Amino acid sequence: MNADRSGLLDRHLAFVEALRGAGLSVSLAEDLDAVAALSALKWSDRATVRDAFAATMVKKQAQRTTFDALFDVYFPAMVGDGAAAQAADGLPAQGEGGAVKDNAAALGDFRERLAEMLQAGEIDEAELRRMAAEMVGTFGAMPGRGPGLSSWSAYTALQRVAPQELVDKLVQGLMTDDVGEEEARRRAHRRIGEFTGMVEDDARRRIAEEKGPDHVAEVAIRPSIDKLAFMAARRSDLDEMRKEIFPLARRLATRLAKEQHSRHARTAPLDFRRTVRASIATGGVPITTHHRPKRPHRSDLVVLCDVSGSVANFAQFTLLFVFALREVFQSMRAFTFIDHVHEVTGHFRPGADPVDVLADLAASASHAALWGRTNYGRAFTKFDENFFDALTPKTTLLILGDARSNYSDLHEDTLRRLTGAVKRSFWLNPEHERNWGTGDSAAPTYGEIVPMIECRNLVQLQEFVHDLAW
Fold it and tell me: What stretches of 346-418 adopt beta strand conformation (E)?
C-alpha cells in the first residue's frame, strides 16, 4: 500500500513538473491545493479527478488543451503494456507471431462499424474510445522501427482509415425531418473531430507506456501559447498570440511603472525642505520623506527587422508588442527588410486594431525585397545610406532576424558603424541557440558585433522588453 502511495505521489510530482515545463505556472500552494482537493474525492471517477486538478492548477482557458493532453499522458484512461494489452483493450485477435491483422477486409469492416457508431443518435463515448484504441492497435502499429523510435502513430492510423472520407455517408445517416443537411454536416465534422482526438490520445498513451510519460510530455505535447515557438506556430496559434499581445503589453507596462516608482523612491535625492515641513504634523519626526522629482530617462528606439519567410511572424509580433509599449520610450522608428529597407513606423497608429496593423505589415513586406532573397549585408548597407540619421548617441538599436543571409557578403564593417553610432544595440534571434552557425547562419559572426539573444516565444520576448525598457 505504501509503495502504491509512493508511486502515485511520484506520478503527481512528475505531472506538475510537466505542466510547468509546458508553460503553466503551477505554484507550490496550487500543488498542495490539488493534493488537498483530491484527498476529498473518489479516484474511481477519472473525469472528476481531472476537473479537480484543472480547478486548482489551470489559470487560463487557453491552457486547458495543454493540461488535458498532459493529464491523459500521466493518468491515462486505459492502462496496459501497449500492443501486449490489446486483449484487455478489446482489440481483435493477433495473427501468427503476434502480428496485428491489418488487411483490406479488416479495414473495410472497421470503417463500416465506425460509420454506424458515428451515425447513432446518441454517441456512447466509452465505446467510441474503445474503437479509437482498436484503430490505433490495428492500423497505427509501426513494426520494425529503429531504437528510440515510436511504434505507434495516430497519423498512420488516420491515414489508413481516413475518417474524413466518411463525412458524406454520415450526413445521409444524420439527416432527419428535423435535421437538415447543413446541421447534419456540422454534426458529422464535430463527431469525426472528437474521434480524431481520441485516436491521438490513445497513440500518446501507448507511446507513454513504452517510453514513459516524461518522453511524451517533452516531444509530443504542444506548450502553452506563451511558450510556443513563433516559428512553430500554426494559423490558429497565431490568432491566439495576437489576442495575447496587448494584454501582455498592458501587464508589462503596469509592472514597469511600479518598478520605476519604487526605484525612484530609493534613488531620487531627498527634498529636505518638504520633508521638514511635513514633519511638523508629526511633532518634528520625519515619518514621511519627500524626494525631488527625477526626470525619467527614456531612450529612442530604432527597430530593424527581417520579414522574410518563417521569421515574418516573429518580426511582426515583436514589432507589435514593442510598439504597444511605445510610451516607455522617447521615440520609436521601425524598418523592415529582406534585402532592401522600408520604413513602417506609420503603420503603428495609436489605437489601431492589431489585426489591421499585422495585415499592413504583411503587405509592406513586398517593398522590402528587390531580389527576393534575404541579404543582411545589403540591408545594413542600404540602411546606412538612407536612414543613418535615425541613429543618435541616445538611440537603442534593436535588430530582429535569424541571421541567415544565403551565404552573401555580411558587411560586418557596416554593422559596426551602425552599432558604434548608438548608445546600445541588441539582436533578437527566433532560432534556438543550438542552430546558430549551422548552414548559412551568420549568427556567430554578427554576435561578435551585437549581443545576440534567443527569443523564440512570448515569455522570452516579454522578459527582454522588460530589460530593454530599463
Answer: 395-400
